[in-house]
Every structure is written in structure tokens, then in C-alpha cells.
Amino acid sequence: MTTLKGEHIYLRALEPEDLEFVHNIENDENIWELSNTQTPYSKFLIKNYIENAHKDIFEVKQLRLVISSYEDVTLGMIDLFDFDFKNKRAGVGILVKEPNDRLKGYGKEALKLLINYSFKHLGLHQLYCNISENNDPSIKLFTNQGFERIGLKRDWNFVDGSYKNEYIFQLINN
């Protein structure tokens, strides 16, 4: 599928070989704030998740894709979540795992590919994302792809003993 192939990376479905990668991400407390996770996930649960990842987005309301280099290095993941067929919208989440792989354009390319796929193949009208107000790299990534900040959720997330505000961004398919 050429829609999911970019110049430097491509997006692919989860494979059984991704178990360790997904397990490491889901159990990395440094990024739990991004996913609102509070408890670790077992390899058994993640294995079951990967085994069912082939199910249709219309059934499970989400789609998780791996961001991979053409050298087959797994760089991160990008998700559609809260897929709403009736209103033709979905949330977007993205993570490039290793800090030394960030700010190299992989996230930008992955987001462009996902936007194109969402609008062209899934027929979505809009995408949205939620970003902590102090996450400048993510704000820049999404705004550079046309997402507009449409609101502020005050004291939205309780992190490390205090509340943090969160922005909501939206991209409408014209």
C-alpha cells in the first residue's frame, strides 16, 4: 500500500515480533503521562492485543501502526483511537520511542501518512489530538501539519502531584 509509504519511513501493521517493543513502550513510566497509563501491562496481555490487532478499525474503534525505517528498524507507533464512524472522526497519538530518533522528521512523515490514509481511505472528516500544554515538540509537530488549537482543558491531568492543562487540537478534512 503506497499510502503508508513515505520517503524515509513506512507505517505497517503490528507483527508478533513487535511484542518486546510494545511491552517496553507500554511499561515505560516516563511516557505514561502521554497515554494516561497508571499500571504496567503483562506480556500476556500485549501478546493477546497484538494477536487481535488485525481486527477492523470499524469493529475495535482503533488502529495502531508501527513506524518503521526502510532498514526495518522499529522507530515508534502511531495510533487512531476513539474511531467514531457516525461522526467520521478519530483521535491521533504518536510516539517515536528513542530520544535520539526524535526531531529527525520521522514523526512528521508518519503523521502526514496517517492523515492522508485517514482522509483518503477511511473517509474521515476530522482528526484530533490531546497535548499537554508544555509538550512543545508535539504542539509544533501537529500545528505544522495543519492542526489548530481549539481548546484548553484546565487541570486535566494529575501528574507528579500537580494538575496539568491539556490542549485539544483538530484538523478538518476540507
From TrEMBL:
Transmembrane segments annotated in the record for this chain: none
Q: Which Pfam families match?
A: Acetyltransf_3
* Upper classification of the organism: Bacteria, Pseudomonadati, Bacteroidota, Flavobacteriia, Flavobacteriales
Q: Which InterPro entries match?
A: Acyl_CoA_acyltransferase (IPR016181), GNAT_dom (IPR000182)
Matching PANTHER family: GNAT-FAMILY ACETYLTRANSFERASE, SPERMIDINE N(1)-ACETYLTRANSFERASE
Q: Give the organism, scientific name.
A: Litoribaculum gwangyangense
What sequence ranges are listed for the domain N-acetyltransferase? 9-172
Query: Per its record, how is this protein called by name?
Result: GNAT family N-acetyltransferase
Coiled-coil annotation: which residues?
Answer: none
